[in-house]
Amino acid sequence: MDLSHNPLVSKAYASPKLRQLILNTGTMFLYCDYSGFASHNVYGAACCTVFNQTISVSATRLPITSDQGSNYGEMMAIIFSLETLAAASASLEHQPKIAVIYTDCIRISHLLSHSQLQEKPGRQELLTALANFNRLFPDIVIQIKYISKHKKNNYLHRLAHNAARDAALSVTLS
Description:
Blueprint: H1 7-14, H2 16-23, E1 27-37, E2 42-51, E3 54-61, H3 70-91, E4 98-103, H4 108-113, H5 123-136, E5 141-146, H6 155-169
Helix pairs in contact: 1-6, 3-5
């Protein structure tokens, strides 16, 4: 996705808080989001990746056949971010030491840490994806964080949000 003329990228560079993330060379930041339209039975996930002065956005339409709820969708967006991170890390000359995945799912730490939620849809898939990533890239520390109030005026998250919506509503997204 070409972001060279995207006004949200310009706004991100103009924001001191976001600019310091863009210029960071040791940590990769991934902003993920899920978008679902249950009335049309279409769902999408996207990831805005920020690393070493580069911003990129990837998105996919999720193969969900029925509405599983926003927590499930957000976990699928995190899995998509892990896949995006793995693809990027495999092709980078210098891998990040830390990858911070931001999600707007307020329950993410609860969903990941409580073993009694074993049957929660998507939880085991996410734990498996994390374990697979850690096996392939043991030197990259993954942190999954709730974006909380930092979501407001966060143009990087907005890029992911818009791309997830577009992916859900379009037949194909290149």
